[in-house]
Amino acid sequence: MTTVGILHPGSMGVAVAAQARQQGAEVFWCPEGRSEASRSRALRYGLTAASNLTELCEQCDVIISLCPPANAVEVAASVAAEAFSGTYVDANAISPAHMTQIDDIVGATGAIVVDGSVIGSPPSTSKHPRLYLSGPAEESATVAQLFCGSAVRPLLLEGGIGKASALKLAYSSYQKASRVLAAVSYALASDHGVEEELLDIARGRTSSYLTETDYFPKTAARAWRWAPEMREAAHALDDARLPAALMEASAEILERWAALKDQPLKLGEALEGLHSAHGG
Predict the structure, then answer these.
(1) What Cα–Cα distance (Å) separates residue 35 from each residue in 32, 38, 40?
(2) Which residue, 16, 177, 175, 158, is CA-closest to 92?
(3) Closest Cα to residue 6, out of 26, 36, 35?
């Protein structure tokens, strides 16, 4: 039986851990410093309580870190301090640079680090998130095997540490920012009594802008006109006492394409125009 440690049983962590447990793994968690809500979730899903982090690290072949991104390095360092020598999966929404930092921290103790990212809602009978894994091939495959046949869909990425993390942030930067922007847009429309008309316009679309990569070069060529429009939108939001930062940032991004005015472009040329000349 493979033994798995979960740090920590939040709503995503406990649901992912439960899927591994259903597939035959024994799953440990560490109650030290955790809330009553965490204790309740761990009990509900049948996780085994370790007396402390030392015992969890001694008992587990695999440790999966699913915690708030801001705490990912701290959690990794705490595991490294226990000289853990198994497989450590960081499945948090962190940058490739932070993933490399964690690989250095935990790998220094002899552990093998796998880069993971969960894309989707917590697994259930109706929801099947993807677990992307990159890094050492053998250990990545072993982690994937923990979830084969479960509501978590493991997928292996070629390449090393950082691939899974980059994919997660590439997706979430659009998905989450677009939710925020939609809320701000709706608030502006609502302030002026045209929210139903806005929704009617939006309902005419059937796909995500994220899938329309052929339109990116056209956006770059039209950026010289779109940037001032975003500035005007920012002014309107300011007047309504709504947050304008997203519109200001959009204008700044469009202005990176200013030199490409009305040019016929290929996708690669448009994407290259987004990169800062000084690498920032």
Answers:
(1) 9, 5, 9
(2) 16
(3) 26
- Radius of gyration from C-alpha coordinates of the chain: 22
- How do strand 153-156 and strand 87-90 relate by DSSP bridges? unpaired
Contact present, 7 and 67 (Cβ < 8 Å): yes
* d(C-alpha 255, C-alpha 274), whole Å: 9
Residues 55, 227: Cα–Cα separation, whole Å: 56
Q: Which residue has the tokens 């993807």?
A: 130
CA distance 26 to 35: 22
Asked if residue 131 lies in contact with residue 117, where contact means CB atoms within 8 angstroms, the answer is: yes
Structure tokens at 269: 């040329």
Strands across the sheet with 130-134, in order? 48-49, 26-29, 3-7, 62-65, 87-90, 112-119, 130-134, 153-156
Instruction: Report the C-alpha gap between 156 and 165 in whole angstroms.
Output: 13
Whether this model's pTM surpasses 0.70: yes
pLDDT score for 1: 82
d(CA 7, CA 27): 11
Residues with pLDDT less than 70, the chain:
277-280
201 token code pair:
């316009």
Query: Residue 178, CB half-sphere, CA atoms under 13 Å: how many?
Result: 9
Q: pLDDT by residue (tens digit) across 133-178? A: 999 999 999 999 999 999 999 999 999 999 999 999 999 999 999 9
CB 65 within 8 A of CB 76: yes
Total Cβ atoms within 10 A of residue 179? 10
Q: What are phi and psi of 67, to 5 degrees?
A: -140, 175
Burial class of 266 by CB neighbour count within 10 A (0 to 12, 13 to 18, 19+): exposed
Q: Answer whether 110's CB lies under 8 Å from 136's CB.
A: no
